[in-house]
Amino acid sequence: MSDPSWDEEAEVVVLGGGGAGLRAALAAAEAGASTLLLEKMPALGGKTQMSIGIMTASGTSVQKCAGLKDSHARHLADIMAMGEKAGVTIDVPATKFMIQECSKEIDTLVGLGLEFSGPHPEGPHGMPRVHVIQPDCRRLVALLIEACEKSGARLETGVAGGDLILDHKGQIAGVQAGDKRIRAHAVVLAAGDYSANHAFVAQVAPKAGLAEPIRDFATGDGHRMAMRIGARTRNMQQVNTPHLRFKEWPFVEPSPGLINAGAVLVTGTGERVKTELGQSIELPDFEDRAADFYIVIDQATAENLAKSSDDHGPGRDGWALTGKPFIGTAPRVGYAYLEDCNAWDWHAETDSLEGAAKQIGCTATSLRTAMGSTPNGALHILGPMRRVLANSGGGLSTNQRMNVLSEDGPPIRGLYGAGVNARLISFMGGHGYALAWAMASGRIAGQQAATYSKKI
Prior knowledge:
Layout: E1 8-15, H1 19-30, E2 35-39, E3 54-56, H2 61-65, H3 72-86, H4 92-112, E4 115-120, E5 130-134, H5 137-151, E6 154-157, E7 161-166, E8 172-177, E9 180-189, H6 198-204, E10 212-213, H7 221-228, E11 233-234, E12 243-246, H8 257-260, E13 264-267, E14 293-297, H9 299-302, H10 318-322, E15 328-330, E16 334-336, E17 347-350, H11 353-360, H12 364-371, E18 379-389, E19 395-396, E20 403-405, E21 411-417, H13 433-455
Parallel strand pairs: 1-2, 1-9, 2-6, 9-21, 10-18
Antiparallel strand pairs: 3-5, 4-5, 7-8, 8-9, 11-19, 12-18, 13-14, 14-18, 15-16, 17-18, 20-21
Helix pairs in contact: 1-5, 1-13, 3-4, 4-13, 11-12
């Protein structure tokens, strides 16, 4: 290397080895740029590795193969209706762009060898648009890693990005990562959210202070690095409401409809929590309980839940056709029914109240009180669950080329964002947009970074 002040060099450096970062590295390498991806954790995958694996999109080859005629215009109309109901003003041009790019990404990933089930329905949408990765998101990560390596991208783990380095013109010149100064023509930030940055979360969302982050490595490194050099942010005060999620993989969020169907939510001591799941953290004093929770489903309640025999396809739609609750959104199937839970460690079945109490770790007396009586038939115990922050809402402002914008307005030359580090719009509604956007924005950021690097 001609300049001894640099320890290493790459035309494009990607910070973050989750789905968005891997997708960006692949796109940059395929565009002909020498590419280096740095991930601070010992293994690649990040949040994507833990994702349910849902991608919402319209006009895809998966829909066409299922005989569904959908369009981006119908998709936009559904989002507009959701926004009106939520009292949110929709950024139409940005939303159109996001719909188009997320849909394009589905077909790109199919070409890479990824398989999807569905498409599945979802309440707010007039057409089945939920594409579920098969068998789960770990397959997506593996495919991206393999493709990156084939394309020549270098992937390094255990290296955390520290600071962005600018030249005298205020353009990206490189990064400080660990004990190395790495020269770069362009940098893509794909470092995830800040839900585990306790000091920041406590500042912007005091009521969420006791909720655990679902990923303790989500400390907002990309946000911090960009803000230090004057990047504009968007919705940083927004931290998603904590939700109950199962502690073990897959980290399913139970459906609020379970309680209305007759399921009982209890603490680890067998105390009943009288609430709808979606409102549980808003109860007086409930936000102070950092504890395990369980759902108990008796035989009568189980008969009120959707089953695979209710499905008519092409995706899992029995819950939508019958109005009966499902357990939660889940890998492989999209919507998990009780029969699917046998595959996961957070489900147990017993024939007695004593057996259920033992599974939870409480007394049979306390559980009988919580249930209101001694139930007949099989009992299903789902848990433990914890209140967790699954994500933070804010990100870096970008344009449609994924350039990170400065506080003054113009792009910071050579700096790009992907995934949570590319906050183009504030509202989409429904499930499946975060992962779809991580893939689409990663592709765009990588391509644009590679193009820019060739001009330096």
